[in-house]
Fold this sequence. Notes:
The complex is a heterodimer.
Chain A: H1 19-34, H2 36-60, H3 65-76, H4 79-90, H5 93-111, H6 113-142, E1 153-160, E2 163-166, E3 168-169, H7 170-179, E4 183-197, H8 210-215, E5 221-224, E6 228-235, H9 239-243, E7 249-250, E8 265-269, H10 270-277, E9 287-290, E10 293-301, E11 315-318, H11 321-324, E12 339-347, H12 353-370, E13 379-384, H13 394-428, H14 430-438, H15 443-483, H16 499-524, H17 529-533, H18 544-579, E14 590-595, H19 605-621, E15 625-631, E16 641-646, E17 663-669, H20 673-676, E18 681-684, H21 689-694, E19 698-702, H22 703-709, E20 719-722, E21 739-748, E22 763-767, E23 777-782, H23 790-800, E24 806-810, H24 811-816, H25 819-856, H26 858-866, H27 871-903, H28 916-942, H29 946-951
Parallel strand pairs in A: 6-11, 8-10, 17-22, 19-21
Antiparallel strand pairs in A: 1-2, 1-12, 1-13, 3-12, 4-6, 4-12, 5-24, 7-10, 8-11, 9-10, 14-23, 14-24, 15-23, 16-17, 16-20, 18-21, 19-22, 20-21
Chain B: H1 17-29, E1 33-34, H2 35-45, H3 54-67, E2 70-76, E3 82-88, H4 90-115
Helix pairs in contact in B: 1-2, 1-3, 1-4
Amino acid sequence: MEPHGGRHLGDSAKHAGGSVRFLSRVRSWMRAVTRRSRMEREMDAELRFHIEAFAEDLVRRGVLREEALRRARIEFGGVERAKEECREARGVNFLESLIQDARFGLRMLRKNPGFTSVAVLTLALGIAVNTAVFTAFDALVLRPRPVKDPDSLVAVFRTTPGDARGRFSYPDYIYFRDRSKSFSDLSLFAFGMALTSSDLPPTGPEARSRLAGAVGFQLPQLLQGSAQPVVAVFVSGNYFQMLGAVPLRGRLLVPADDQLGSSPVVLMSGNFWQRQFHSDPKVVGSVLHLNGEPFTVVGVTPVDYMGTLPNVPSLWAPVAAKVHVGGLAAENLENRLLIAGMPAGRLKPGVSLSDAQAELDVLAAQLRIAHPEDEKNTGVLLLPDRNDVAMLGPEEWALVGAAMSAVGLLLLIACANVASLLLARAAVRHKEIAVRLAIGASRGRLLRQLLTESILIALFAGAAGLPLAAWLLHLLIVEIASALPSAWGTIALQVSPDVRIFSYALLVSCAAGIAFGLAPALQASKPDVNSALKAEGTLFGRRLSRLRLRGLLIAGQMAACLVLLISSTLLLRGSQRALEIDAGFESRHVVCLEIINPANLRYPQARMLQVSRDLIRGIAGVPGVRSVAQASRDPVGGIRWVPVAPVGAAASTSITQETQTTGAGYSYVTPNYFETLSIPILRGRVFTPSEAEGQAPVVVISEATARRFWPEENPIGKHLKIGLEKGTMFYPGEKDPFIPSSEVIGVARDVRSMDLRRIDESYVYLPLSQSRQWTRILLARTEADPRQLLPAFGHEVQRVDASLPVVGAPLYTMISMDPFFVVSRVGGLLASIVGALGLLLACMGVYGMVSYTVAQRTHEIGIRMALGARGTQVLKLIAHEGLRPILAGMLIGIVASAGVSRLLAAMLFGLNLLDAFSFFGVSLLLGGVALVATLLPARRATKVDPMVALRYE
Amino acid sequence: MHLGETASVDKQLELLQGTLDMLILKAVSLGPLHGYGILLRIQQISKDRLEIQQGSLYPALYRLEHQGWIASEWGESENNRKAKYYRLTAAGKRKLQTEAEKWNRMADVISGILQSTPEEV
């Protein structure tokens, strides 16, 4: 037969050559989208026509109509599949099916509220903790500074071979500021200083937060002094102008304020103003005495304004004001060796970082030519100052990595949990899926639909997790912020919603959705059609792969949970041990008294010496005090280096300022220092009083120093050259010593004074002359508990000089306040919280799995019991099978933890890497809890009534 | 298509997707047809030597229409039933030409290779 065409023909369309396909594609796509139902009807009609036409041909050949239709249909094949492919050919498929999938998925989720809520909440917990950590990281590091146009801010460092991030002196800063053409402004941050003011309204006792109590924060108490400490930071006059800041009240600093001759002004931070002065508007314009000098308060910066600093200071003052308060001698502004501060600049529009770097390199070279006596190889380094990323060293990044890994593990546990829930549900939907596969749905399509469901769950969880994360973070910040003393400045975390945070949460949710959804979806969509359509799915062997997957999930959860728990226990125990470190000197019966910024008092040298002598006498006279020593440095604070080298001997190593490794820590001490701190002298002797008074060129060195310079010999009698003729860069008030030849008279035992994690590399003790030097630090050795004597000390201070601000604390307390230890304690605490959450989730997972297994196998259990098995036998069977993946997981977890503990070694302070308590005890705990979680539902199995079970389907 | 008639002696060759497109275009170039008619015509002009899966016909038609080589319109069939007719567009005509040329060139090359004797190598 001849087919002939229809009677109506359309006009031929006229299309341009190349754009035909694109245009027609778009047109066809649009048509399909907008008139979808019509297209469906037409497609249906077309295919029906085809089948009927074929059938008619068959009829014409003599086949019966019924038979013809049947054969026509069979011959055509799957009509639905053909329709699917037609739709696909149209190009609507993806968006269309996505919406369809989403709608279907929502419906399924709505029908199972129990499952949905458990899945969403479990995942929300994991996502919330992750997002909270990321938000904290973002707020602290990634977020650009809250200033105008942070991308054009640049931090400038001075590089020397020993130090890539060095500070600048004032004249050098002026040099670059005046000569460089790349910056619209170059400002200087000249550090902060604790000042005293008698004009501050009294504040109530500082509130103690729970967290502070938990980690044992104890700060030195202010013993006596009518003046209260307040921290001010010093910035150049163009600082605020460079940052484009706007005042809350009054005005901000301008370059005119930063001249030696101009009247002293100061700004208050909004936080300080609110806290100390209760937002009194009369403060602006009033006079504030700082270190005895009158300053006019000309303005208030906005609340939580930090500029380029990591926290909010109490006061902002111009650099010139440092001279007024006695923190800087006027002539030192010309001193090229005095460390002044850190410059930051704003690039002019159109100038790139590399351009500016090139220009500054040239200027630095010119400076070197102008000052050939400078260190060799001094340069300049410019780094973007948009946020604090550049300031993170490898240690900090390791910390960040550890934190993210921990919460990542938690999220994985949550995902595994939800995955097993999904697997359980897939078993229930077995039939539905089989039917869909049978009528022609492609496996890929089915997979996509199941995955869409998972992603929907994940998105809901993400949406629920965000507010949870915000709440968690808020809680944490409030706790931490209130634990820190206000004198340290306020930590203001900008934790406002942010594109980065949202996209992170979204990313994490989707990743989680795919992670937990993929395996179950793959499992569920396996085309094992026949067995599903036949009767029940409770045949023994058939579910093997599903069982294996669930077992894998449980094992994974157990492993992850164990790693978290063991690591957090190790951290906690490590931080405990940190407090028990033997620093090498007595710390429990020593009080460290410190005069806060004595320069503030502006006493002449003679008066200061007298006050110091009287104070020592007074303290020594307090009953219960064994001895009082002086030191230029407190035994646990800071590091002061001076280059040292043996005189004569192997002078192959020439001392240069570059190689700091030939330096040693140093302090000036009175002869009774060693006795006061119970530092044994291993060889030789200490200074005699006359040697100390006369500042004779003698020195007591530490063991490590002796080992370094004279490894096999007796160091007594040898000579050391201490310091350099031309001096090294130094902080105000701390000029490095220079002694061309100092005789070694004694060797003291090594201590850990510079970094409690390590023994001091080298240390030298120089004699202190009480008639010529006074020190801020006094160390009093007590018989009994030093805390009891603190009030008596305060009384003495009051008696000697009422305006002297002195803080005192037992040395032991100061050790525990070392930032590193604080971080490790807080870290251990937080890690334990995460670990506990992981434990909760993992056990929920175990409980869920076993319950489900019991429910699934009720039929089988009924058979067994009907055949004579006793309750306990059934219990053992279920428990046995449940415990297998748990034990396997725990084994993996232990091995993994051993690896992790190696990574954490630095934070463990000598705790055995395979600490028995942590590994064994925690495993026992987890095993026990998991056992209970297994046995509880397993017991239900024994209560099964065989008759009911046999009928159960 | 198994209509109960005996297939021709040669085994029916299986068809690749790309060639099906070409055949559809050719079939339609001889005059507008509905889907079933296209099937019949291809069978006819191939003298029953080609096997075409009925289910793959319509997706191919939709694809070709989506790409603009053919255009469709509803009309009436010989039995006065509504059917969708497809006709070749101008662009489709050009496409058919180029495809046919490509096919011929390819056939030449392949047959040349297959016929090469050892002496020619």
